[in-house]
Amino acid sequence: MNHDIPAVVLDLSANGIGIVRALRRKGIRVFAFDTSRNYRIGRTRYATCGLCPHPVFEEEALLRFLLAFGERFPGKAVLYAGADDYVQFMSKYREALADRYLFLLPEAAAIDAVLDKRLTYQAAVAHGIPSPRTYTVDSRSRLQELLPSLQYPCILKPAFSADYRKRMNKKAIVVESAERMETAYAYYERFGELMIQELVPGEDENVYELGALFDDEMRLLAVFTGKKLQQYPPRFGSGALAVSVRDEEVIELGLRLLRALSFKGFANVEFKLDPRDGRAKFLEINARTWFWHSLATRCGVDFSYLYYLSVTGQKPEAATTQREGPKWLYPVRYLLAFLERRAEGGANLAEWIRRLRGETEYALFEWSDPLPSLRSFAAHLKSIRLRKNHPK
């Protein structure tokens, strides 16, 4: 295989670092960029790292930056996006970027459908994918219409907008009563259109994720499933501990939806097992690798490398089987999740320790590249101090 073509990774979170390390282990030269905070934390010796303009607030500057950077290569470099903001940016400027980079994205309409949660829900329902009941709320009068029919607890969350997602600093708000819904909506409506969604019961370990990669002809190149054992923040966060588990129902439902959407390139589909009927309920799609995709690499499904081979025209063999059992751990987030659950009276120390047994892939830590893990640990501690000093 030819590994001479360089790669450019936009993202230096655990997601992006997973891409960087997978490629560098194959001998591929990697450049990685991100905005200030992630750059300070995620700089890794496996890539030439640097700062870049923000993909939402400085998108034209980022386009100029990438086009200028691409001129240094005799041919096109392979471009990766490790975060939704970069995916949205690449989709918007795909024609200009294609002059300097190799990449594969679904059509713009499919990208819009996964970034706008209203369209995502409509697509899932249209293709027969079990989903929690969801309502769009664009006014207080619409909220008043819905209040008598809502079942509590339920979820209030943004429909779309990178800006207010960041300002809310949370995926969703759990609402326990009609009175609380009115209060919450009055506060959060300033951030844009919102959605009310049925809360699928169950703990973090009910959340399953499908990773998939289709080539430009919609040939399946990679598939992997796993489930979260702990999220941070608990219930509506990103992974802190996950395990490789093959689940055929999740695979069937996820691939059915992705094929219906002609979803080329990377895809991550999240489901939650509903204990009320035993069925997997669709939650969301992302057009990228996911936070703990390095677990898939450890288990024999190297998404980053297969993507590289595909977009460079090297026709890789598909990877559709996985080793089950290995875990993925983000230690500082796992500790913080335990402390938060313990404060609520819902954590068991023995169970928390027992879950750490077995083969483990670490989110950031490697003996040969320890600094991203140490910087992340320090950043999380700083964040805790700031929250204590400035309580809401």
From TrEMBL:
Gene source species: Paenibacillus antri
PROSITE patterns linked: ATP_GRASP
Gene3D superfamilies from the entry? ATP-grasp fold, A domain (3.30.1490.20), ATP-grasp fold, B domain (3.30.470.20)
**Which is one GO molecular function term here?**
ATP binding
Q: Does the keyword Metal-binding apply?
A: no
The name of this protein is Carbamoyl-phosphate synthase
Q: Using the record's annotation, list all stretches that form the ATP-grasp domain.
A: 121-312
Identify the keywords attached in UniProt to this record, alphabetized: ATP-binding, Nucleotide-binding
InterPro entries, per the entry: ATP-grasp, ATP_grasp_subdomain_1
